Automatic annotation (TrEMBL):
The keyword Ligase does not apply. InterPro entries: Acyl_CoA_acyltransferase (IPR016181), GNAT_dom (IPR000182), Ribosomal_N-acetyltransferase (IPR051908). Pfam families: Acetyltransf_3 (PF13302). It comes from Leifsonia tongyongensis. PANTHER family: N-ACETYLTRANSFERASE DOMAIN-CONTAINING PROTEIN, RIBOSOMAL-PROTEIN-SERINE ACETYLTRANSFERASE. GO terms for cellular component: cytoplasm. SUPFAM superfamilies: Acyl-CoA N-acyltransferases (Nat). This is GNAT family N-acetyltransferase. PROSITE patterns: GNAT. GO terms for molecular function: protein N-terminal-serine acetyltransferase activity; protein-N-terminal-alanine acetyltransferase activity.
């Protein structure tokens, strides 16, 4: 599967071999990781991707995407679909960046790229959840047009209906 390009990022869909390298935390010469990558959130997401791949085969396009800066090629975080769309066409997305990459608009840019991927692959709705305390993530979700649609305790839910591609 091909990389998805945004203005400043490459959304690189990882495969099983890359997932194992990321989980091992030891880059090979072909891996360009910024200091701090992978962080705990990446390891959780990649672990889920790998488990789903082992159980059900290749998850792409509904898997984990490594976020690389186009300017230097360094991996600075990840963004993922939590699996293929459900029966209603809804797909969940989650994302995270190393601390040095936060506050620069990368998360919103990556999320716009994932929304476009979801639309192009037939999803009808994108959802995301975040903590009521995660102001930066709430701002990112609003910035890409995902309004808050509900909550369960400390978890807030955001949704975006997609028009067919």
């Amino acid at each position: 599967m091909a990389d998805t390009m945004t203005n400043r990022l490459v959304l690189h869909p990882i495969d099983e071999i890359e997932a194992e390298r990321i989980l091992g935390g030891v880059p090979t010469p072909v891996d360009d990781w910024a200091p701090g990558y992978p962080f705990e959130g990446d390891l959780e997401a990649v672990g889920g991707f790998l488990a789903a791949t082992v159980a059900g085969g290749d998850q792409r396009p509904w898997g984990y995407y490594q976020l690389r800066r186009r300017e230097d090629g360094l991996a600075i975080g990840g963004i993922r679909f939590a699996g293929p769309p459900d029966a209603s066409g809804t797909v969940e997305v989650g994302y995270g960046l190393i601390p040095d990459a936060r506050g620069k608009g990368y998360a919103a840019e990556a999320l716009r790229g994932m929304i476009a991927l979801a639309r192009a692959n037939g999803a009808l709705r994108v959802i995301a959840e975040t903590s009521s305390k995660n102001i930066a993530s709430q701002r990112t979700l609003r910035d890409v047009g995902m309004p808050r649609t509900g909550s369960a305790g400390d978890t807030w839910r955001y949704e975006l209906a997609l028009t067919p591609a």
